[in-house]
Amino acid sequence: MTDCFALLGEPRRPWIDPEALKLKFLALAAEVHPDRVHRATPLEKQAATQRYAELNAAYRCLCEPKERLFHLLELECGIKPDDVHPISPAAMDASLEVSHLCREADASLAEKAKATSPLLKVQVFERAMALTERLNRLHGGLNARRDGLTEQLIRLNMAWESAPPVGSPTRSHALPCSRLEHVYRELSFLTRWSEQIHERMVKLSL
Fold this sequence. Notes:
Distance between the termini: 44 Å
Oligomer: single chain
Shape: flat
Number of strands: 0
Helix content: over 70%
């Protein structure tokens, strides 16, 4: 299994500063960019191209929080997190709220598509704007929850910084992987819900 952290020279940890990661990636990628090796031998060009592709893949993995946590859990636990996992009561409540509002948005979009008279179009538009306001408030609440999860990841960094080195038989027991998996799952839910809400907001604005 490729260790994306090692590939980018980053210590394993749940939270990484996005700007620092980007600067490190750009510096590493510049060394093997195709424009830098145009005078190299075919084998050297092939190696540089492969390295450049690997760095890009590693950066895409680590810059996205959900993907980074999935990768970190897989590295530390040796297996991928289960696809099926019980949802917390708070997450269930949020899921129901998102689902209900998205259904309302879909109904509004269907109504908009059928509207023909100018008066009916105005009424549909006004209801769509009110619905967009509710979606926007819900989206803001989800973003606030995401910020809270980010704070948890920053605090969890301390456990990784003080853990035994990679390869140590006691490392997995010293890391709060169960807690990290909980944050990963909550973040996965938030990411999916945010995408669903954003999709409806865009459609309602058209």
